[in-house]
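Hi L.,

You mentioned the student needs an example of a multi-chain input paired with its predicted structure. This one should do, with 960 residues in total across all chains.
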Amino acid sequence: MSLKNARELGSFFNPESIAVIGVSRESMSFGGSSFLHHWLKAGYSGRLYPINPKATEVLGLKAYPSLRALPEVPDLVMVAVRADLVPAALTECADVGARFIHVLTAGFSEIGTPEGRELEARLAAIAKERNLRIIGPNCMGPYSPASHLTAWGGIPGLDGRLGIISQSGGVTQRFTEYISSLGVGVSKAASIGNAAVLDSPDFLEFMAGDSDVDLIAVYLESIRDGRRFFDLARRVTPRKPIILLKGGESRRGAATVSSHTGRMAGDPVIWKSVFEQTGIVPVTNLQEWVDACLAFSLLPKTRGKGVFIVGGGGGNSVIFSDACIRAGLEVPTLTDRSMGRIRPFVPVAGSIAGNPLDFWGTYLVNDFLFEALNAAYEDDSIHMVVVDRLIPRIAFHSPDLTSDSFAEIVEFIQSRRQAKPTVFTIDYDGGDSDLIRQGSDLRARFCRAGIPAYPSFERAIGALARFYRYCRRFGHAAGR
Amino acid sequence: MSLKNARELGSFFNPESIAVIGVSRESMSFGGSSFLHHWLKAGYSGRLYPINPKATEVLGLKAYPSLRALPEVPDLVMVAVRADLVPAALTECADVGARFIHVLTAGFSEIGTPEGRELEARLAAIAKERNLRIIGPNCMGPYSPASHLTAWGGIPGLDGRLGIISQSGGVTQRFTEYISSLGVGVSKAASIGNAAVLDSPDFLEFMAGDSDVDLIAVYLESIRDGRRFFDLARRVTPRKPIILLKGGESRRGAATVSSHTGRMAGDPVIWKSVFEQTGIVPVTNLQEWVDACLAFSLLPKTRGKGVFIVGGGGGNSVIFSDACIRAGLEVPTLTDRSMGRIRPFVPVAGSIAGNPLDFWGTYLVNDFLFEALNAAYEDDSIHMVVVDRLIPRIAFHSPDLTSDSFAEIVEFIQSRRQAKPTVFTIDYDGGDSDLIRQGSDLRARFCRAGIPAYPSFERAIGALARFYRYCRRFGHAAGR
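Structure written out for the whole complex:
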């Protein structure tokens, strides 16, 4: 695909008109009608055309019997008819000159039958012969909050600078709403399913050239042209990090890939080597994916792997230190100068002055926290900071902990423009609904204020370790 | 310590009277008074004696000038005076014949000074000379919901069959309230801090012989008599699983250990070998600790490592399969008989009939879920089941998902007495407060009904992998 062709894919994300072939008058279950319903709800401002030969109106929109009957050539056509009717729908698209098509329908190569494979081959052949650009089949298609094109995932969605390319509709939906709910917005997401025509390299090339995208998150099960993906990734990663969740690394996972998107998952050894040679950042599950995207989206670059740990208590200071080392980071001894600043306000008994810094005062009095952070920001051995933030709990014998010092902390960190990457951890897991409400609320507020906050120390460190390795490799370009 | 001496430690957890040396009349900050306050609040029904030479009453309780002035010898004395006053307090205990003592006070060997070490040596010498049983110093002491002895951790606490031994007060508090909030109760917890007199092997021996304890969770930073711990653990693990969070495995973590509890962490290579030779179950953080305790507390034993995965969607089916394999478990192909039962109700397109089973119907219609579970329970290749339970979300285009089928699911699994270990996963992480509320509530309800539920698939699989390895080794004794 030429560069011109890659740019052209932008049409999927900013259509001025959309026709939907395959809408039901009654059912609002998953399909053409539910997409129309969600586009309307999300405030999509372009023209929507339901195509149904038996209806005059669907969801208050004028319905048309066919594409031919439309007053214009739609920028995007969504095809949601039964699998065996898809080829005819595609031919109709080509006949009227509609070239950008999303095939929602499932039932192609992923069902594992000769018929399914044959149907997918026909789809690809029509696309080639008639020069159609097709996303799918078996996928959720394009998503773009800036265009109010948000029928799935975060609805109405949050505009931002993240690009997503994914072979799973369900995973992309969840990922999109998950990261949006933490304040990191999405520029464009492409759920590409079986990727019979347009494949991940096509969208990677498009997003590489898209000035609205800074960071690319990819969920991949398989790939047709591995060499092209590899060459592209090597060019893209130094400028825009690619965070990749690869499904099907195990033989069993690979077997499931063939039932899901009808393709081959590829050798995990090859993929490992691809990660090493391209600088793609690998993750293994949804949580790691979101955690890394938070760090890469919000943090300034780090110049090293020295972590300063604040708070958490004595036992956690030990456990957290272990976690840093296990993840390949360091917990350096503070300089004498830093110790000289910290020691005066940390009691000798029941606390630990140093790194980790275990001192209840950092929860209770912001000035203690700020003095510790200032010392760390000026300490050359420290490159990143993790602050453990407990939630007020009566079981900790500290009724004073109820004051909300959030705004002041955010202001302090923002005023220093995150001098060094600084993240928070807030542990609220379990079955205590009050703790969960307070903790998750605090976490979301930190994230939305541009400060990554994680529900466990290990998850914070996992994200920081990935971020550090990326910065070490592409230092000049990394970070916000 | 003899077996008789070990049994004697039960006195710490069921005292009929407690004296507290070191209570303030005014301050309710952490210390003797806040412990009294919490015992009163928790409904402790024994006799409480504040010792304060200047007060006549503390928190509505009659105060006494000294232990000598008490009307009886208290079963337990808590010492919360300044570190340098501790030796005199211990001597006073010995003089009146009080032998079970919890030293809350910090400022001993953990502060790293000759004075601190010397003070701790004096404490140990007095204990030896006067035959005192001391928990501490620098710790939260005993905790026992059945005795309403819950001044920290879950308050009022949930009685149960878990025993906890820990060198970190903060970690034990959080762990105790965390696991209690999920419906798994604690029989006894001992926060032992610097463990200058009574050490982890003493409490391990005690809990090994305690018929109220089925499962032992240990947080250890260091150990004096490693051989004794090893020999005990080897005897205990076949009957009662020991789940151990070892702090200080890295050199940096070990350095922090010495600031926290004033001791040496021991060689991680040795610890690894201890785990292998004893069958102790190692975990590396608080979440893994709780996750494993849920599985070990609630599940019947597993006879193999074959996992049946239900729900989650296509992409998650791939990612979850990978996670099982990575954790050392298997995702077996179902037998023809099972497939014959499942295939009729799973649509060919958009779903996957098999293992994983990806079918929306299992969320929507309980009968589909039950039929799949029944097939798995009768399939010899399947040993454990993980059901992914999505929360109703409009973004998934399924307005029907709002019905609450929880009660019926619980009844189904309970009526089969968990024929094979069956756990649920509910992903609600992020910043969507409504999703968090619904998801965490559902999770807690499952756990409290005796069905382990985890906030991510990886965490469920981590717990099941540990459980499987334990059952493989000690098959005859494992499980509920």
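You could point out the following to them. The first strand of chain B starts at residue 17 and ends at 21. Chain B touches chain A through 103 residues (CB under 8 Å).

Best wishes,
N.
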